[in-house]
Amino acid sequence: MTLKQAESSAEVEGKLSALVTNANAIRAVSNAVEGTIGPKGLDTMLVDRFGEVIITNDGVTILDKMEVDHPAARLLIHIAKAQQAEIGDGTTTATIMAAALVTEGLDQVIRGVPVTKVIEGIKFGIAEALAAIKANGRQVEHLNDRMLKNIAIVAGREYGDIANLVIEAANLIGKEKLCESHFKLSDIISSQECAENQVFMGVVIHKQRMSTEMPKHFHNAKVLSIDDALQCEEISSEALGTEAGFQKYMDLQNEFKVNVQKIIDLKVNVVLVDRNVSEVAEEMFTDAGIMVLRRVEHMELERVAEHVGARLIKRTGIKKANSDIEKYIGYASEVYEDERLKQVRILGGKGKPMATVLVGAATKEVAGERERIAKDAASSVQATVKGGYISGGGSIEIAVARQVQTMRQTTKGMSAYGTDCVVHALKRPLSQIVENAGFNQLEKVEEVISAQIEHKCNTLGIDCDTGKVVDMLELGVVDPMLVKYHAIKAAGEVAVAILRIDKIIRKVAEGSADKVVPMPDI
Q1: Is 358 helix (H, G, I), strand (E, B) or coil?
Q2: Strand, helix or coil at 313?
Q3: Does residue 212 sit in helix, strand or coil?
Q4: Domains contained in the chain, CATH given
């Protein structure tokens, strides 16, 4: 590069300071997770200011816990979290591809391609890539399909015991339940220090009895879930200072005791409460031999209600007649507290089947990581049941990149350079996977491209143990189609959003009269 060219390039970069700054921030986030992708990916240690340590290979956990100040970096993390919430996996792939799109887009702009044309080309390329991903999807016919087990092993980072737990749970729940839009298989997974790996029909509540004097074991139990606090209505201290106010307080207390007695008279055995339980109610329930769990998470309340065939009731609901309250009660064949694990299990509900996966480990830290792994595996299995699977290991992205490259000639003018950004980004997952495995990424990517063209096979990739080109489907390396689809979609969205930012301006603080000023450096 001549001096004149260097000066020209520096001038362009000066005009694009916002884009350069944002691209650097995006690359920094990508660098934090790219070493974890693939079967040979390594772990990351996260340490907070108190010295608490998390060791993980999970991309979304790294992104969620890492300290980030730059707004563009936070945008990327938000997109990754949205990917996790939508489909439960694929955040690392989405992050790596987004960084590649932004970096390559910046390079094209520095070369003189208008940003609008780069964005136009990226949108075209992403649309073509998404269509190609869907076209390559293959469906599973039943829950015993061997590909589901392969999906669980790949997403579960080759932990066979975790894969077996997830597949067993999926079979217990059934395909119909897995395909429900609001149900997440990952929600039924929990971990416990010193516990054994288990899958069972029932629900676990991570709470203990409110009092050790309460019974801890029931057969054929009646269960009532209160989505509220179980306390008497409050009255202000000012009102209590008056005779009328004090009388109202006494009336409310008596009414509350009557309502609690209704639950006792209905012979309810187990009461789950969303918030706190008053001392009056605790004493009455203890005397009546009823197990009470308080401050139960709302999601757990819903799962229990669905499993035992109950309905959630509010505090005001227990004012109703006994015949009406009885309609909210559910039934379970067994409820007991495991004092060692500090949890209560509700088994054999009369409502919808509900399985629970308990992942055990020797220490709290390992248990947490194994739970994250199991949740990834569960999300991938459910996504596969819903949308099918594709070849993994970065192979399908190479095939899609070739297709997008072919479609490049149909783009008009300079937007073709934006399409090149998509081709480059689609090659990044395989590049990073083989680099993490210790191979030359340029060499291996070209080997796969050549092999796919020669054999007319889109499922060829690299065996990370041998470095040889193999069929990923035959090797059992597969990914859920929906995970890959949403990862590419998310990467495209965040890249376009970042590339469209022309300036970064600091906002005026609330109540301040200061004017806004450009903020080129963050």
Answers
A1: strand
A2: strand
A3: coil
A4: 12-138+390-506 (1.10.560.10), 201-359 (3.50.7.10)
List the alpha helices (DSSP H) in 43-159.
59-65, 71-87, 91-110, 115-135, 146-155
Question: Which one, of 395, 377, 432, 394, lies nearest residue 30 by Cα?
Answer: 432
pLDDT at 281 over 60: yes
Cα(425)–Cα(428) distance, rounded to whole angstroms?
A: 5
The pTM assigned to this predicted structure is 0.74
pLDDT 10s digits, 294-340: 999 988 899 899 899 999 999 888 889 999 999 999 999 999 998 88
CA atoms within 13 A on the CB side of 180: 11
Spatial contact of 335 and 223, defined as CB atoms under 8 Å apart: yes
Question: Mean pLDDT lowest for which of 60-74, 176-190, 397-411, 491-505?
Answer: 60-74
Contact partners, residue 517, CB within 8 Å, separation at least 6: 505, 506
Phi-psi domain of 111 (left: phi exceeds 0; alpha: psi -120 through 50; beta: other): alpha
pLDDT tens digits for range 391-415: 999 999 999 999 999 988 887 789 9
Question: Which tokens go with 403?
Answer: 């297709």
Beta strands in 196-339 (DSSP E): 198-205, 217-226, 270-273, 291-293, 330-338
Full DSSP string of 360-389:
EESSHHHHHHHHHHHHHHHHHHHHHHHH-E
Please state, in angstroms and rounded to a whole number, the distance separating the CA atoms of residues 221 and 304.
Answer: 13
Cα within 13 Å of Cα(167), Cβ side: 21
Residue 3's pLDDT band, with cuts at 50, 70 and 90, is: very low
Task: Compute the CA torsion angle 61, 63, 68, 71 (nearest 10 deg).
Answer: -140
84-121 b/e (C-beta count within 10 Å ≥ 16 → b): beebbbbbbbbbbbbbbbbbbbbbbbeeebebebbbbb
* Contact predicate 249/235, CB 8 Å: yes
Tens of pLDDT, residue by residue over 124-138, are: 999 999 999 999 999
Supply the mean pLDDT for the chain. 86
How confident is the model at residue 329, as a pLDDT? 94
81, 83, 86, 88: CA torsion to nearest 10: -90
Q: Is residue 385 within 8 Å of 140, Cβ to Cβ?
A: yes
Q: How far apart (Å, rounded) are the C-alpha atoms in residues 194 and 260?
A: 38
Q: Distance (Å, rounded) from C-alpha 99 to C-alpha 424? A: 11
Using only C-alpha atoms, the chain has a radius of gyration, in whole angstroms, of 28
The CA distance from 206 to 302, in Å, is 14
